[in-house]
Structure formats: C-alpha cells, structure tokens
C-alpha cells in the first residue's frame, strides 16, 4: 500500500511539474520582444493571435462550427508610438518606463523644451493657475509647462485630474510625479506631448530635449481567438473560459511592456484548460475565447457579446481569467455577490480539497471582459490571483517575476467547478 501511495505522489509531482513547465513556455513566448507587448505596434496583437490559434491547433482543439479560430473586428481609434520615445534633460538620457513615461494619448514632437514651473498649490487653485498661464504666455521665453504634482494626495490628484490633458491640447506638458508609473492604451490623440517624470530624477531648472514619435490610427483591425470542444454527450449548454491576450504594446521602438501576469498568464491558463478538457470531455460544451482590445476598453468582449457566434442564452457560465501568475494569497472572484450559489460551490471545493489560502468575494465591477456578458444576462466570474507580485501595467511585469505558486491548485479548482456545475445543470 505504501508503495502504491508513493508511486501516486511521484506521478502527481511529475504531472504538476510538466504542467508548470508548459505554462511557463507559453507565458514566456507571449512576453517575447517579437510580440511587441501584444499591442498595436507592428501588429503585435495579430502575431500573438496567430500563435494562440496555432497552439489550439496543436492540441487538436477545433473551432466552433466553421467559424475559424479568428473573429475579426475593428478597433476605432488607437494611439501608438512607432518610432523614438526619447527624453534627455541636460546631459542625462532618461530611461523610459523607469524615469519617465509618455502619456498614452500624447502627441509627438522633436525639439527642445524650456518649461515654466507651476507648483502643486497653483495647479489646485483655478484662479492662480489661470494667472500662471497668463504669465507663461506673456513672458514668451518658455515653450512648455512643468507641473509639479509630486507630494499630491489621492484627493488632490482627483481634483486636478484631466488638467494636464486639457493643457496639452495647446502646449507641451511635463508632470513631475512621485508614484509608480501605470501605463495604458490611448484611444485619443493630444496635439502636444504629455510626459510624466519621476520626482527623484528631475531637475526643475534644466531644459529638456525630446524626440517622441506618435501616430494615431483611426481604424485598426484586430481579432479575438476562439476554440471549442463539444460535450461528450449532446448538450445545449456551454461553459466559456475567457482571458484577454492583448497588452499595452510599445512606448517607442526600444521599450515594450511584456504583460506577463497581465495577462500572458491568464491566456496560458486557457490553453491549460483546453488541454485538460480535450483529454477529459465535459458534460458541457467548452468554448475558449482569448480577447484582444481589453486594455483599450474591453472592446473585444463587447464586440463578441454584440456579435455572438453562439446564442448567449446557451452559455451556462463564463469564467474570465486574469493575473494567474501567483496566488500565494489566494484568488478573488468578481461577481461573487451576484452569483452566490456558484460562489459557494467554489468555496466548498476549495475547502474540501484544501487548495488555496483564500477564495475572496467581490461584487460586480466593469474592470475586465466578464462585464459585457453580465450586462447581457450571462452569469460570469472574473477570477484573478492575489500575491506578492505587484508589477502591473509597467515594464517590470516580466515572465521571470512569476512564481506560478498556486497554478496547479487553481486548475484543480476550476475543472472541479465545471464538473460539479454539470451535475447540477
């Protein structure tokens, strides 16, 4: 008996090890420089989509009817930085993503900037700020504004939110900040550059030299990736596993955002689920959808729900996966308060199998691709891990930073959840 148990533990360890090795391979590839941050520079999103379609094909996962793996649609309006994104102050060349970022909707410009310094106190007072703008214009020796927003509180940041963008319609703007950079995807295009620079590196008296190439694309063709496994017996209902595969792309040709945890890890989880259910068919049909356009405002999932390739009333549940690279502190389930019965099932499985440290309840939010399904009346969870890795929407969200500590337990939780849902359908 002891030999049998020992052999079982060895097989489990080997299986877990192989699973982690596979998810690391997929995640690492999705984060590779040749995918350009899976954004809208050099068709990084399309390169990633083709890779995912090929991975599904290698697993012998089919498509839904004759739809094919790719669901094409147009993203209307996206700002890109296809060339240089360089900032120099004095003789010091600043490091993109570390010392500065170009605001995602920034316009481009090449030249020297002599900035006029405006304090936080002045920026917070509408009358004082108007007077400062008048002085800046009257003096004539400056060609940019330098807003000192370091030391601003959260409330003060809310109060002056949008100020820099409003000014950048007419003048170059540089913001001094003292908080972590968090980048995104720009859906509009400012007339002039808007740059954020860390307080720890900036010289408030020196001139800047910038070389920023920005291009606004009015209509950008992109795609969702869809794969499908029919149920082992005829079934009208479908479980959907979803994750967004897109990320932020590049800020200039030298700097890209790998997007390892967000969301190469969740995309890899789709393939893990596909591999499992191919070998272990469910009583449900299983559909896998990797969305593009999530970082641009949940565009891919919105398109899918408005142009569904199967009737949404046939979807039993959507499990949207993001940030799957850790889990040391457990997972959070968004929409748990809306679908309490299903959340209780998640918690019961976790307790029974002693899997994760915590399965946390959270109410509805509009922060990922589950949102449009919920809006259409489709039950959905958005599940993400909690852990020590806090790299998010920055250049440090790299493959090497992911532990995948609880990956196997999360997959166990998810496949058991689907199996038990099928018994209660």
| N-to-C series of helices and strands | HHEEEEEEHHEHHEEEEEHEHEEHEHEH
How large, in whole angstroms, is the Cα Rg? 24 Å
User: Whole-Å distance between the termini?
Assistant: 38 Å
How many domains comprise the coordinates? 2
Task: Give the CATH H-level superfamily of the largest domain.
Answer: Zn peptidases
Tell me the major beta sheet: 8 strands, mixed
Strand content: 15-25%
The counted number of beta strands is 17
User: By helix and strand content, what is the structural category?
Assistant: alpha/beta
Mean pLDDT, nearest integer? 94
> Architecture of the largest domain, according to CATH?
3-Layer(aba) Sandwich
Question: How are the strands ordered across the major sheet?
Answer: 1-11-13-12-14-17-15-16
The percentage helix is 25-40%
**What do we call the CATH topology of the largest domain?**
Aminopeptidase
Task: Please give the CATH class of the largest domain.
Answer: Alpha Beta
> How many alpha or pi helices?
11
């Amino acid at each position: 008996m002891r030999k049998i148990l020992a052999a079982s533990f060895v097989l489990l360890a080997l299986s877990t090890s192989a699973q982690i090795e596979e998810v690391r391979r997929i995640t690492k590839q999705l984060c590779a420089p040749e995918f350009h941050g899976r954004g809208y520079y050099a068709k990084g999103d399309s390169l990633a989509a083709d890779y995912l379609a090929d991975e599904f094909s290698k697993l012998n996962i089919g498509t839904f009817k004759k739809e094919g793996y790719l669901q094409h649609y147009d993203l209307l309006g996206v700002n890109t930085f296809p060339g240089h994104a360089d900032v120099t102050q004095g003789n010091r060349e600043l490091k993109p993503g570390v010392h500065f970022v170009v605001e995602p909707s920034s316009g481009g410009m090449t030249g020297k900037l002599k900035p006029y310094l405006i304090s936080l106190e002045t920026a917070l007072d509408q009358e004082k700020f108007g007077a400062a703008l008048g002085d800046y214009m009257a003096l004539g020796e400056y060609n940019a504004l330098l807003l000192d927003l370091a030391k601003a509180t959260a409330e003060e940041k809310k109060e002056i939110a949008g100020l820099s963008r409003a000014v950048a319609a007419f003048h170059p703007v540089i913001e001094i900040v003292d908080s972590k950079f968090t980048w995104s995807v720009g859906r509009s295009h400012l007339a002039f550059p808007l740059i954020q620079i860390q307080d720890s590196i900036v010289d408030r008296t020196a001139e800047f030299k910038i070389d920023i190439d920005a291009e606004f694309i009015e209509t950008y063709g992109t795609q969702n990736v869809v794969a499908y496994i029919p149920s082992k017996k005829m079934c009208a209902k479908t479980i959907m596993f979803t994750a967004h595969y897109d990320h932020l792309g590049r800020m200039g040709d030298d700097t890209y955002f790998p997007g390892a945890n967000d969301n190469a890890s969740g995309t890899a989880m789709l393939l893990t689920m596909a591999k499992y259910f191919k070998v272990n068919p469910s009583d449900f049909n299983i559909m896998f959808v990797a969305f593009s356009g999530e970082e641009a405002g949940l565009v891919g999932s919105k398109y899918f729900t408005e142009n569904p390739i199967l009737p949404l009333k046939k979807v039993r549940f959507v499990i949207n996966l993001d940030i799957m690279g850790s889990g040391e502190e457990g997972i959070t389930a968004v929409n748990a308060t809306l679908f309490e019965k299903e959340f209780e099932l998640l918690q019961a499985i976790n307790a029974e199998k002693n899997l994760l440290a915590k399965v946390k309840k959270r109410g509805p939010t509009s922060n990922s691709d589950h949102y449009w399904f919920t809006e259409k009346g489709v039950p959905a969870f958005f599940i993400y891990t909690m852990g020590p890795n806090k790299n998010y929407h920055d250049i440090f969200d790299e493959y090497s930073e992911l532990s995948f500590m609880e990956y196997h337990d999360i997959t166990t939780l998810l496949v058991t959840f689907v199996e038990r849902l099928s018994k209660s359908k």
